Recover the amino acids of this structure.
C-alpha cells in the first residue's frame, strides 16, 4: 500500500511515522508513506498556500491552486483508490472504515487546516471525507496520523501475529475481553482460573462472555447497532 499525505507540516508527521510499528512496516516494504509539503506548490514568492475567504469573515482558506497542482501531479503518476480529506464534518472514523481502507492500494490524504479548503477541492477531487470525532482539531495532521495508524496495522504482516488485529476491540462488534500475563498471583490478585486451565474451548467461551459483558456495560450502543 502507498499513502501520499498532503500537509503544511511534514515534519510534525514525520515524527510519528518514523517511530514504532508504522516505521517497521515501512522498512519491511508493507507500506510506503510519502509526505508532500504543500508549501512546495505555492504560487507566491512567500510560499503561502492560504487566502482570505470570499465574502469576508475570520480565518484563512487553503487555496485551490496549490492543492489542485499537488493532487494532479500525484494523479499523473498513479491512480488513487481514494482521495481523503480530514474534516470535522466528515464521516466518523470507525473500525469498518479502517478495514475498508486497509484493502486499498493507493490512498491520498489531504490534511485540512485554517478554516478549511476551498470547496472546489472537495467537489472535484476528494472522494472521501473523514472525521476522527466530534471535536475540532487545530489541523488534520493528527487525524491523518490516527487514520494511518488504524489502517496500517491491519495490513497483513504489519503486526507480528495477524490474529492480534482480528482480536481487537470492535472487529467483531464487541470491545476486547480482559488480558493477563504472569505472575498468576500478584499480592493475592488472581488471574481467572479458566485462563490457566489449558482448555481452549472453555477459554474462548469465557473471553466471548467477558467481551459481551464489557460491551453491555461500557459501550451498549455497539450491541444496538448489531441488532
Ligand atoms: N480537522 C479538524 N478537526 C478534525 C476532526 N475532528 N477530524 C478530522 N479532521 C479534523
Amino acid at each position: 500500500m502507498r499513502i501520499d499525505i498532503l500537509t503544511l507540516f511534514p515534519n510534525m508527521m514525520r515524527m510519528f511515522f518514523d517511530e514504532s510499528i508504522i516505521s517497521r512496516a515501512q522498512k519491511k516494504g508493507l507500506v510506503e508513506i510519502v509526505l508532500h509539503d504543500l508549501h512546495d506548490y505555492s504560487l507566491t514568492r512567500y510560499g503561502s498556500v492560504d487566502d482570505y475567504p470570499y465574502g469576508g469573515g475570520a480565518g484563512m482558506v487553503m487555496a485551490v491552486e496549490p492543492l489542485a497542482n499537488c493532487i494532479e501531479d500525484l494523479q499523473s503518476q498513479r491512480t488513487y483508490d481514494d482521495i481523503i480529506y480530514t474534516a470535522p464534518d466528515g464521516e466518523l472514523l470507525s473500525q469498518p472504515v479502517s478495514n475498508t481502507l486497509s484493502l486499498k492500494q493507493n490512498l491520498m490524504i489531504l490534511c485540512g487546516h485554517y478554516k478549511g479548503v476551498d470547496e472546489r477541492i472537495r467537489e472535484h477531487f476528494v472522494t472521501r471525507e473523514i472525521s476522527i470525532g466530534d471535536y475540532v482539531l487545530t489541523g488534520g495532521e493528527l487525524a491523518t496520523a490516527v487514520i494511518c495508524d488504524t489502517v496500517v496495522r491491519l495490513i497483513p504482516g504489519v503486526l507480528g501475529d495477524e490474529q492480534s488485529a482480528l482480536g481487537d476491540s470492535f472487529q467483531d462488534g464487541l470491545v476486547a475481553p480482559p488480558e493477563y500475563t504472569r505472575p498468576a498471583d500478584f499480592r493475592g490478585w488472581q488471574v481467572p482460573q479458566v485462563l490457566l486451565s489449558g482448555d481452549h474451548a472453555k477459554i474462548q467461551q469465557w473471553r466471548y462472555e467477558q467481551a459481551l459483558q464489557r460491551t453491555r456495560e461500557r459501550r451498549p450502543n455497539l450491541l444496538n447497532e448489531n441488532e
